[in-house]
What we know:
19% of the residues lie in helices and 27% in strands. The protein has helices at residues 19-25, 33-40, 87-101, 118-123, 236-242, 244-250, 264-272; strands spanning 10-13, 46-52, 58-67, 70-78, 106-111, 127-139, 163-164, 178-183, 212-219, 222-225, 254-260, 276-277, 283-289. Strands 1, 2, 3, 4, 5, 6, 7, 8, 9, 10, 11, 12 and 13 form a 13-stranded mixed sheet that branches. The two termini are 21 Å apart. Residues 143-171, 202-208 and 304-310 have low confidence and may be disordered.
Amino acid sequence: MAAESDVALTARRLQAGEVDTALRLCPFEDVDADVIRRELAAGADYCWMGLFTPDGKPAAVHRAMRWGRHLLLKGVFVDEEFRGSGAALAVAFAIRDWAREAGYEGVAAWVEPNKPEARLGTRLRLRPVGPRLHRYLVELPYGSGTERPAGTPQRTSGTPPRTSGTPPRSSGTPPRTSGTLVVPGGSGAAPMVPELLGVAGSPSASTPSAGTRLAWVLDRSRLVLSGNPCRSTGDLDGFLAALEDTAVSVGATAAEVVLEAADIMAALAMAGLGARRLSRSPVTLGMVSFPGAEPSGTPVHPAATELRTP
Length: 310
């Protein structure tokens, strides 16, 4: 039953002590209290935007995370009482506005055209980037820090991961949960899925063959990556090996690997590897960039969190 239209709802970011509020509305089995607590404490790298009634009851929450210079929208959840009231759209607009205030270049989301959530993408004016894709969840062989297979180079104790923008951490400093990494190689045939966010494709202009730079973000226990530089599924082992240091440093145990939905042979190969497809129908990455966004070198920052009426 939809809520009455004259109920005044206000939007604000959830704070570190509001784990139960997020947990109450979020249906993901693997988004538990520990995950929410980590994300609520991560400054501008994650955002849980809530929509509240005047007496403080949560009507909706929207979860998002930093992915390169964009805020990746990862799910809007509405209390049953407020479904059909416009709460989903209101909290989506609120999180978009927060991203602009926080200094992001824009927002992005995986859009499944046949799902009701696609309407939100249209209202947010997300435009498709790249081809239609399938996202596969691939378990990392040593992402959780378990013993590496024979022949895998060992990292010297105390040496920081080879992750761009991730400085050595002092004791007590929270680990990074987003950044960029370089996948070696990259010459020859075209990648299976080009880098989607506009991250520079090589470490420098003077070393164009040094590799492909991808944005990554930790979503629960998985790395979400902004492209697939493999030339074929035969390159997948090398791709996963390039993620090793980043995965170990953040505790990731799986990676999202994207493939063109029309590539039937690749889909069969992924099934043979035991990878799990994350949606039944193809998705596209939808993006919108903010006019006059701050320069790409400007760090994002938490915006004001006072109550606002959508």
